[in-house]
Specification:
alpha+beta, nine-stranded antiparallel β-sheet
Length: about 250
């Protein structure tokens, strides 16, 4: 299976220069290689990548440098080394596009949800244009009563860019819902790499060891925040512990 380098991704975001038409062929070849890369990644998650995802994938690559951060206020930071560092944040209320999936594997659920959101972001919306990417994308998870496994249902949420917060474009996909989420106070910790049920459970356990015993956060619901798309192997993620409402 073909692979694509970071340099290839950068070139896909550049405007084609005037020439003899070979640039168009290069773009098509680059898009084919990019699709092949995503197809290989999807297969590791046991997900089939539809051919109609080629367009959204290419658009996301072209706009990869323009990512709007979800607004928040940092309340406190703890720990001097990254391995033991965590931060408390306050996120304001805002409108999010949300998809809920309940596939057998966590990776399947987030992959299928992200594909739906990519289509919405790129064109399948009531304004018919690219909306712009925001980070992080949130994956809300729930633990079983025993606390040893994840529940199957995962809610994946994309924050609407600032210009669309007041009047969000309507999704064409009926499984995408625009939701006004309440203000959220979280305690966050960074980790890198692929997100699987195993790695998430490990990160939750490590975070509890750092925090110690406390009743100030939820024990059954957590959020995995993803800052890069699923095709990036060593992507930046955060685990969020949610503060209980006072």
């Amino acid at each position: 299976m073909a692979r694509i380098t970071l340099e290839d991704l950068e070139r896909l975001g550049e405007e084609p220069a005037d020439g003899d038409g070979s640039d168009g062929e290069d773009d098509q070849e680059g898009e084919a290689r990019l699709f092949a890369h995503w197809e290989a990644v999807a297969s590791t998650h046991r997900v089939s990548l539809p051919r109609d995802m080629a367009g959204p994938i290419a658009q996301m690559a072209r706009h990869r440098q323009a990512r709007e951060p979800v607004p928040y206020v940092s309340l406190s930071q703890h720990g001097k080394c990254e391995a033991a560092a965590y931060e408390e944040r306050q996120y304001p209320a805002g409108k999010w596009a949300c998809v809920t999936m309940g596939e057998p594997m966590y990776e399947q659920s987030i992959s299928m949800s992200f594909m739906k959101l990519m289509r919405y972001i790129c064109k399948e919306n009531s304004v018919g244009c690219h909306l712009g990417m925001t980070v992080p994308v949130l994956n809300e998870i729930h633990l079983t009563k025993e606390g040893t496994e994840l529940e199957r249902e995962v809610l994946t949420a994309y924050y609407l860019p600032g210009e669309f917060q007041q009047n969000p474009p309507v999704p064409r996909d009926p499984e995408i819902h625009i939701t006004e989420r309440a203000p959220l106070q979280v305690i966050t910790r960074v980790f890198y790499g692929m997100t699987t049920e195993e790695t998430i459970l490990r990160e939750i356990s490590l975070f509890w060891e750092l925090l110690g015993s406390t009743d100030m956060v939820l024990r059954e619901t957590y959020i995995v925040a993803s800052y890069e798309n699923p095709s990036v192997p060593q992507r930046r993620n955060e685990i969020w512990f949610i503060r209980r409402a006072e």
